[in-house]
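Lipoprotein signal peptidase
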Amino acid sequence: MKRQYYIGISLFITIIILVLDQITKFIIASSMKVGDSFEVIPNFLNITSHRNDGAAWGILSGKMSFFFIITIIILVVLIVFYIKEAKNNLLMQIAISLLFAGALGNFIDRVLHGEVVDFVDTYIFGYNFPIFNVADSSLTIGVLLIIIALLTDMKKEE
């Protein structure tokens, strides 16, 4: 019989991402001034101390009450979706765990500091990509895994 939920794996992923996110943000915030930067891989990766009081790319900067409400709604929706829709689908449960951890990681920053600590500064094909953090990476990977899980499910139904 197939397991319906992989709670242990989901909790493990969520906790690891949250801890990694918060530790890296703490290290950056306590050891670097905003704007400080150092090169890790020439012409590709820098660690740059940055603060963001908005969403991706600084959209809706300063709208903290909006982010509080939206994030709480998103977290509740993810829990409900996990319970109702992700049965027997390990990939979907992992994706939701990544989304949950990423949203919660940035939410913690907004609640405690009024802004999110970003520090991963990449140059991809000559484009200076917006600075991000572990929580943002978790959100992005979670979305990609949901798309893969949905496409896989669609192929199974055919």
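thats it. The chain has one domain: 7-52+63-157. The chain has four helices and four strands. bye
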